[in-house]
Amino acid sequence: MEKVINDFINELEHGKKLSKNTLESYSRDIRQFLEYLNDIGISFENVKRTNIIAYILHLQKMGKATSSISRSIASIRAFYRILVKNAIVMNDPTLNLESPKIEKKMPQILSIKEVEKLLSLPSNIDPKGIRDKAMLEILYATGIRVTELINLNLEDVNLDLGYIKCSGSRERIIPVGKIALKALEEYVNKSRGILQKNKKEKAFFLNFHGERMTRQGFWKIIKYYASVAGIDKEITPHTLRHSFAAHLIENGADLKSVQQMLGHSDISTTQIYAEVIKNRISDIYKKSHPRA
């Protein structure tokens, strides 16, 4: 089973520009699918469309979210396309297979006041507080993903010209505002050297072990400050990215520019932030206008 999965991931890796997290998701989905097939005594070469439908029902009974099931189906489709392409199987059992419809969920957006309160909390008198402030400021200033944040290396941050370079599946250069730039400079000058244990470490943001900050580590950081701020919303590391996009659009930025800054391949993904703003304006009107 491991060889089949590794061959599949290797072909994806060389054929498409996919992030490490995306490849791990594909690998995890296919491993779970193959384990299911093994449990029911069917080899992947002999899978029929009905077997995949049964697997979908199995995932639903397990309480998997619709989005997770849709992603699993996408992984299985990619798996069988490659198997057919390499003549390992003759027929693709995923043809005409429908994915469950995903209800479009509006992203959680912080108000500008909530963002200001959150960003004001980290202390600028100790290495941790200085680092935390720089991370929060750069997330809101650029809208980068958390993975892109923790994957930043020293050479990706240009303090002189005021930009960062994100080298994900869609490489892009993003300008940094003066407030976030000041926070980055303070981190480099006052904090990073104290946190650094190995002079060869290239990661820009470091934890107390002198190693690259992890997703889990940053999750704890943002949860902590959200709790201290008393913000009564579900806040995740992605919340500042959502808020960045919504606030830009709310203040007149065009969708195409926001799409490029976020690194979205499809503008329809960016469109959801315009819908959030439209819904918010509608709610304000209904609550405020005497004849609404």
UniProtKB/TrEMBL annotation:
Quaternary structure annotation from Swiss-Prot or TrEMBL: Forms a cyclic heterotetrameric complex composed of two molecules of XerC and two molecules of XerD.
GO CC aspect terms: cytoplasm
Name recorded for this polypeptide: Tyrosine recombinase XerC
Entry keywords, A to Z: Cell cycle, Cell division, Chromosome partition, Cytoplasm, DNA integration, DNA recombination, DNA-binding
Similarity remark: Belongs to the 'phage' integrase family. XerD subfamily.
Gene field: xerC
Annotated organism of origin: Fonticella tunisiensis
Record-annotated active site: 145, 238, 241, 264, 273 (o-(3'-phospho-dna)-tyrosine intermediate)
Domain Tyr recombinase intervals: 105-286
Protein's cellular compartments: Cytoplasm
Span of domain Core-binding (CB): 1-84
PROSITE patterns per the UniProt record, alphabetical: CB (PS51900), TYR_RECOMBINASE (PS51898)
Chief site of localization: cytoplasm
Gene Ontology MF annotations: DNA binding; tyrosine-based site-specific recombinase activity
